[in-house]
Design goal:
Blueprint: H1 5-18, E1 22-29, E2 35-41, E3 47-51, H2 60-74, E4 80-84, H3 89-93, H4 105-110, H5 130-142, E5 146-156, E6 159-162, E7 198-200, E8 229-238, H6 251-264, H7 277-298, H8 305-329, H9 333-350, E9 353-354, H10 357-376
Parallel strand pairs: 3-4, 3-5, 5-8, 6-7
Antiparallel strand pairs: 1-2, 2-4, 6-8, 8-9
Helix pairs in contact: 2-10, 6-7, 6-8, 7-8, 8-9
Length: 377
Amino acid sequence: MYLTHEQLLSHARELARTKASCTLRRVGESAQGRGLYLLSVDRSGPDVLVVAGAHANEPVGMSTVLALAHRALEGPSGARWSFLLCLDPDGAALNEGWLAGPLTMARHFEHFYRPPTDAQPEWLGDAPLPETAALLSVIEELRPALQCSLHGVDFGGAFVQLTEPIAGLREPFGVDPGVPLDVGSFDAPYWPMPYPGVYLRPAAGRPDAFDATPAVTERSTWLMPSGPTAVVEAPMWAVPAVADGAPHPEPQKALRVLAERLRTGFPDLAGVGGADPFARAAVENAAVGVALADEWEQSTWARTVAQVTALELAAERLPLRAAAGLARLGASADRAGEVAERCRWIERRFAARWVPVHRQVALQARAVESIARAVLG
């Protein structure tokens, strides 16, 4: 099972109590007053900072940091590891209803919450969130040689985004036959891919996201460290087609269909608004979806099966997230039933298969260690 924030914090306190090389300290607090904690393993070498829980609906990182802390304690020295246990504990608390299981897609979205972009702490707004300020303070203190930000794809494949080249990095995830490498990521549409599933930030002045996407790398905490940042994504539900780099037979026709899906696939949001976090997130998803529909019809980016599949997944994901937000705003059998039916469709359409938590954690931890070895030598 996944760890909740409180469960992770309990494990971290035990490590700090029983291991002389471990320290745990509070480095800030969330908007609602929850503590932000940094667990450090004091081994000789450059600093590596690992950040978990930046996106509230992606819990795998909170289990991965504990696994990495144990590995750092058991392995040879070579780096000083610091783990920010959960960057958004307020958001994480709103997702915890499904973490104890059953870990089904329908139950995940029954308890789903992902803040709107301006409430996600890795993005730099005009006035930094308290969580963002805490992370920036840690980065300024440590000046890490490497930062790894741990994320989790709901359905798709594994991939890494790098803010700068890392010599010698080829296959950070190793081999897991049940988890595809994403070679057409929606999150990195214009990023060069020197190796399968490894994306490199485009040169300055080149686009790095769809225009309709509100989060852009230039305004992120990924660019703050003294060394590179690696954003490490592990999937909850694996979709084999994201690994298919073959040419799509009719990409423009597919994009027209997906654009129409986005324009018509959202639930009725009439009267939805205000400051409620579920409402704000649902409204943003719909606005982004409509703008993406217009952009995709003019785009020539999607040419492979993997790229078209990435956009098809996004065309299902955004309306599903909006429907999940409405269901949480006002629980009703109709809204819950709509969420469940959308999940069944995704599972059938994409042959989506659950990746057990221990495999998600092993995949992500293996990638972080591979990247650290490549950076530190």
